[in-house]
Design goal:
heterodimer, A: 121 residues, Rossmann fold, five-stranded parallel β-sheet, B: alpha+beta, Four Helix Bundle (Hemerythrin (Met), subunit A), 5 domains, five-stranded mixed β-sheet, 25 helices, disordered C terminus
């Protein structure tokens, strides 16, 4: 069973995405900010995919991606970020930081799961 | 309502408060780029989340708001007073939209919808003034690029196949970005059926030079699928800038394949071979096609040159895009660095766990019981005189004490959020009144019980509005009096011996004593001949039915007077006072207990009854042999200390012992002594409120159960101190029956004294 780490400062989004993922049979680790997520990564938890928001108070998603990518166990882990249609420039920045791909909000359950299937090993 | 919606509503209200605060800050410091970021992020979060819960009307509205915020953020528009006002109105509207959602209505009511329309129109106007300069140009560029990517047929025979041909060469960094080429191919297979696949490993360097983390592979794939070209492209979106992707639709011309072969980096013949191997073309088609193409190229050197320039043209555009991206990144970083402090604070705030208030209350309740049980065990242990047991229970009670403190700490919240709400009030009201008023806030980090914070909002609102409306003078009057045109209302909070003090002060004209006095006489609150101190007159405004302003104003006169403020605060076991200096302003001081649940008490005894004095208010204990005498005060190190005998006050029977003890208590700057028979030491206690029957009882704040199971009454020190000082005044001024401004408990006092 794949474990997905979900990071978003919006409780609404955390709840909605995690319920979709859980229903689809993934196990989900949630974090409401980058710092908390990074703590879990530093503790070497088993994560097969990271999905993070970009715009968060404190450490933003791009910094999180950059940090996680540098941790040896997660060097090749797929990382998706949540973005919107209007944030094209951010996508490049996030990709450069080590993200694998993105999910455009608001995404349907199918779009979400398809994108996950695309990158998940 | 489902959980998701209620989470959304709660979250959005928080974000909304953030937006509002941000807008008000922005109004004061318009150059602060990070301010707009904060507002944008809040609006963006709301919009994003509303999309998730599929709340159309909020999403549509927030989309418009976000558009204009985005323009502001990108420096395409400047923030103006008009725009701030509009955005604040949008915040209000969002608030009512959230109300609609909370009320589980599917659509906003007609008037709310109409307001939304009007606001949207306004937003459009602002936006249309900004946008045309930049956006369309960007759009056409993108469109042009898309066209370039289209596959065009260009003559020659049609390849007899009904499957797509996909050529992909992965860039070296694909795997470092967390993408596994294999998973993409697997996904591609999910779109239909992969008929043929060939791995192109020409890019592989000699083993010694190979970096195992780099990807050197390419693939030629023949895919039979009903999916569209866009669907296929989507598989590679995430690696699109790192990989070389070419897609030929079914039934493409041989010429298209030939062009493909030539464009691919590998040797033409070798690619040809690969294509043949994966079944895209026959060898004959390749040979023939390549040969033909060579001839055409040779013959039409010019036109191929022309093709080169068109092919080259997108490059500078890409470079421009990259450049602009770099610039964007830097500006963002600079802004982030500037606002680091703010961000730090917000990051701390983000480390929160949401707990339902009920759960917390339950915990506090249990801790309360634990404290009582602990005290009881302690008492039994002491009685048993077993040192081991005493030691064990004392360790236990220390831990219980810690748990109690931590549990209570959970309920503590900073008053800052409550204070910050007033920025908006002050802004709006001062505009309405045509006055210039600024709000200054201090002590925002002072913490107090959540229940208290929730309930203090209304009284505070009333006091602030009162200061704005009646306190601060109109600009002309202020200038005449030699004051700055801009008035100031201050909110301040601090801790003072176990209470929290909240001050609402203004630098206005102060209370008009003559008018208050006249009004009080007119309302028959006092008699014309009464001698009242200045502070007594000022505090008359808290009497029921008192209002100095004749016309009911829109702001503070809503038929509710200061008496309601006092009643609300008294309900929280607090007090409110006013101090005013004519021409310089007035200060309302609210004093509240830190928590409503548990107190550290000091146990005292009178005859057989036990009483608890809140420890925070105890200053010291003294023993006095001879305090009998006509007057109820004594000389404490040169200071007069009025005192009150609990035995008399509560009409406890029995004979006072020869040596009575006096507990010196302090409240609101006044000291008083409470005479008791014996001191029984510190005692943690859970306040159990008195029954309704005893609600009017003065001097007693609640009850508690002792470890022994006996009931002890908790003394209301504020009321007692007041009684003591009043009773002394009454003695001094003779038996003028207390006027209604005195605490209603004064009857008790007088009875106490006459005994």
């Amino acid at each position: 069973m794949s474990t997905i780490m979900l990071v978003d400062d919006s409780a609404t989004i955390l709840l909605s995405i995690s319920s979709i993922l859980t229903k689809a049979g993934y196990s989900v680790e949630k974090a409401s900010n980058s710092e908390a997520a990074l703590q879990k990564f530093n503790a070497n938890v088993k994560v097969d995919l990271l999905i993070t928001d970009l715009n968060m108070p404190g450490m933003n998603g791009i910094e999180l991606i950059r940090e996680v990518r540098q941790l040896p166990p997660y060097k090749f882990m797929p990382i998706l970020f949540l973005t919107t249609e209007s944030q094209q420039a951010k996508r490049q920045e996030a990709k450069a930081a080590g993200a694998s791909g993105w999910i455009v909000k608001p995404a349907t359950a199918d779009e979400l799961l398809n994108t996950i299937k695309l990158v998940l090993r | 309502m489902d959980e998701l919606t209620s989470v959304f509503i709660q979250e959005s209200r928080e974000q909304l408060a953030e937006m509002e605060a941000g807008l008000l800050r922005l109004e004061q410091t318009p150059d602060d780029a990070s301010g707009i970021d904060t507002i944008f992020r809040a609006a963006h979060t709301i919009k994003g989340a509303s999309g998730v819960i599929e709340c159309q009307f909020i999403e549509t509205f927030m989309h418009r708001v976000e558009n204009i915020l985005d323009a502001l953020r990108n420096g395409e528009a400047d923030i103006s007073a008009a725009l701030t006002t509009l955005l604040l109105e949008c915040c209000d509207h969002l608030g009512s939209l959230l109300d609609v959602l909370a009320a589980q209505a599917s659509e906003p009511s007609a008037d709310v919808a109409a307001r939304g329309e009007a606001l949207s129109e306004h937003l459009e106007q602002f936006l249309s003034a900004i946008v045309p300069t930049q956006e369309p140009a960007a759009r056409t560029n993108l469109a042009a690029q898309d066209d370039d990517g289209e596959v065009e047929s260009s003559g020659g025979g049609v390849v007899n196949t009904d499957s797509w041909h996909i050529s992909v060469r992965f860039g070296p960094n694909v795997m470092r970005g967390g993408v596994d080429p294999l998973s993409l191919l697997r996904y591609l297979g999910g779109l239909g059926e992969i008929i043929g696949i060939e791995t192109v490993s020409d890019g592989l360097p000699p083993a010694a030079d190979m970096d195992p983390e780099s990807c050197y592979l390419g693939f030629e794939v023949r895919l039979q699928t009903k999916a569209s070209k866009a669907d296929i492209e989507r598989v590679f979106t995430f690696v699109s800038d790192e990989c070389d992707l070419r897609i030929l639709p079914p039934h493409s011309n041989v010429a298209d394949y030939i062009r493909l072969i030539q464009e691919l980096p590998e040797d033409d013949m070798r690619i040809g071979e690969i294509l043949v191997r994966c079944g895209a073309l026959t060898q004959a088609e390749v040979d023939h096609g390549l040969q033909a193409q060579h001839e055409v190229l040779l013959a039409q050197g010019e036109s191929s040159g022309g093709a080169d320039t068109t092919a080259a043209s997108p490059a500078p555009l890409g470079a421009i895009l990259v450049d602009s991206k770099v610039v964007h990144k830097e500006t963002v970083e600079a802004a982030i660095a500037k606002q680091n402090q703010v961000v730090d604070k917000r990051a701390r705030e983000a480390q929160l766990v949401r707990v339902h208030a009920d759960k917390l209350d339950k915990l506090i309740d249990l801790v309360g019981e634990l404290v009582i049980a602990g005290a009881s065990a302690n008492l039994l242990a002491l009685k048993s005189r077993q040192t081991d047991l005493v030691e064990a229970t004392s360790v236990l009670s220390r831990l219980v004490e810690d748990i109690r403190d931590s549990a209570l700490q959970l309920r503590m919240v900073q008053i800052g959020d409550t204070f910050n709400r007033f920025h908006r009030v002050v802004r709006d009201v001062s505009k309405d009144l045509g006055k210039e008023i600024e709000l200054s806030i201090s002590g925002a980090e002072t913490e107090l019980d959540k229940t208290v914070v929730e309930k203090i909002g209304d009284p505070l609102m009333h006091l602030v509005r009162n200061s704005l409306d009646h306190g601060i003078e109109p600009v002309a009057v202020r200038l005449e009096r030699g004051k700055p045109a801009c008035g100031r209302v201050s909110l301040n909070a601090y801790h003072d011996s176990g209470s929290i003090v909240i001050e609402v002060s203004d630098d206005g004209g102060g209370l008009n004593l003559e008018r208050i006095r006249a009004k009080a006489i007119e309302r028959e609150l006092i008699q014309p001949g009464d001698t009242l101190s200045e502070s007594d007159i000022q505090n008359l405004i808290f009497e029921p039915g008192f209002s100095t302003v004749e016309t009911v104003s829109k702001l503070s006169g809503r038929g509710v007077g200061m008496d309601v403020v006092r009643r609300n605060i008294t309900a929280l076991r607090g007090t409110v006072d006013v101090a005013s200096v004519a021409g310089e302003g007035a200060t309302f001081t609210i004093r509240l207990p830190l928590t409503l649940a548990i107190i550290d008490g000091f146990l005292v005894g009178v005859d057989k009854a036990a009483y608890v004095i809140p420890l925070d208010s105890v200053v010291e204990c003294i023993e006095h042999k001879d305090i009998s005498g006509g007057r109820n005060f004594l000389n404490l190190r040169g200071e007069p200390l009025p005192f009150i005998r609990l035995r008399e006050l509560f009409e406890v029977g029995g004979q006072a012992p020869a040596r009575e003890s006096i507990v010196v208590v302090q409240f609101g700057g006044q000291r008083a002594g409470i005479v008791v028979d014996q001191l029984m030491g510190e005692f943690q206690t859970v306040i159990k409120p008195l029954g309704r029957l005893f609600a009017k009882l003065r001097g007693i704040g609640g009850s508690t159960i002792l470890g022994s199971g006996e009931v002890a009454l908790i003394l209301d020190v504020a009321a007692l101190v007041n009684m003591v000082s009043r009773s002394e005044e009454t003695l001094l001024y003779g038996h003028r029956v207390a006027s209604p401004f005195a605490l209603s408990g004064s009857n008790t006092v007088i009875r106490g004294n006459e005994h």
